[in-house]
Amino acid sequence: MQRIIVDMDEVIADTTLGMRNWYRKNFGGEIDFDKMLAGQSLVKGFPEEHQAIVRQQLFEPGFFRGLPVIEDSVDVLKEMNKRYDVYIVSAAIEFPNSLKDKYEWLMENYPFFKWQQLVLSGDKKMISGDFMIDDHARHLEHFKGKPYLFTAPHNLNEKRFDRIDSWKQAGEIFLN
Amino acid sequence: MQRIIVDMDEVIADTTLGMRNWYRKNFGGEIDFDKMLAGQSLVKGFPEEHQAIVRQQLFEPGFFRGLPVIEDSVDVLKEMNKRYDVYIVSAAIEFPNSLKDKYEWLMENYPFFKWQQLVLSGDKKMISGDFMIDDHARHLEHFKGKPYLFTAPHNLNEKRFDRIDSWKQAGEIFLN
Fold first, then answer.
1. Any CB–CB contact under 8 A between A115 and chain B?
2. Whole-angstrom distance, CA of residue B86 vs CA of residue B104
3. Under a CB-based contact definition with an 8 Å cutoff, are residues B70 and B14 in contact?
4. ipTM of predicted complex
5. Which chain A residues contact residue B103 at CB under 8 A?
6. pTM of the model
7. C-beta atoms of B93 and A116 within 8 A
8. What pLDDT tens digit does each residue of chain B (176 aa) get?
9. How far is A24 from chain B (nearest CA, A)?
10. Which of A35, A58, A80, A135 is most exposed, with the fewest beta carbons within 10 Å of its own?
11. Please, what are the domains in chain A?
């Protein structure tokens, strides 16, 4: 079976939406998607005076546990999981309180995955496979298989990789 | 730089000694190393009636946080870290409460490592590198680089791999 490496944040977990919802609730403000794009980072989309507290959210227990899933990712990955060796690989070690949250989130929302299929790493240079789907060019750059950039608000200007814009499109690529 | 994949439990963390100390304190008994060897597992070295509670310890928060380091691993890895890309890769996802403990344990005991160098995985089939040092044959079997079996009480009968018996010996192999 071919091996597919799938990222978590902004690929199957809607981190942007989770952060937007948290920010709305606490500060009543909105993301500036142009600034997010210019800064190539989720955090840069928030007003400068709140960027530290927004970043702090990533370190809080519970933040990743409640993230919404990205549309169609459950249905498409359920099928892909029958035909490929799928691994969910998240560069999460920087956020030690996210580790157990990410495990529980994956097991709850994608119950067809086994714990053997999750990897929580620092970087992804040692990860090998046939395909990688990730929203960060820095992870795709080192990958020896076929890389796909999963479209996210922060990466719209990245030109070096073939893109996947949605899980519907991923299904067309991997399930046809 | 060549990449070395180093396991955590029984290779740099003395899980056997940690469990023996816990068992002594709570039950006043000793490990049977012959049974551990026959069962090829740490847990099998304890009396049958206590194996469930010994295994339960692996799921408890704090157990991995307090493990002793294996002799010479700090000094030798500090030098290896200057000459190789070292990654510490632990198949830990099965034990969700160990994840943050393992991160904190590594950062405290091996302060020359950065968080980028830790990987907490389910299995290790997607991990690539030039060398792997692990106490479990099941991880070495899939590895495409050069595998080394790190000697542990449970693996003395395994014959398929070159062995490393101590971190002194690892230093002789990798630092000369």
1. yes
2. 18
3. yes
4. 0.94
5. 93, 96, 99
6. 0.95
7. yes
8. 999 999 999 999 999 999 999 999 999 988 999 998 998 888 999 999 999 999 999 999 999 999 999 999 999 999 999 999 999 999 999 999 999 999 999 999 999 999 999 999 999 999 999 999 999 999 999 999 999 999 999 999 999 999 999 999 999 999 99
9. 30
10. A35
11. 3-14+69-175 (3.40.50.1000), 15-65 (no CATH)
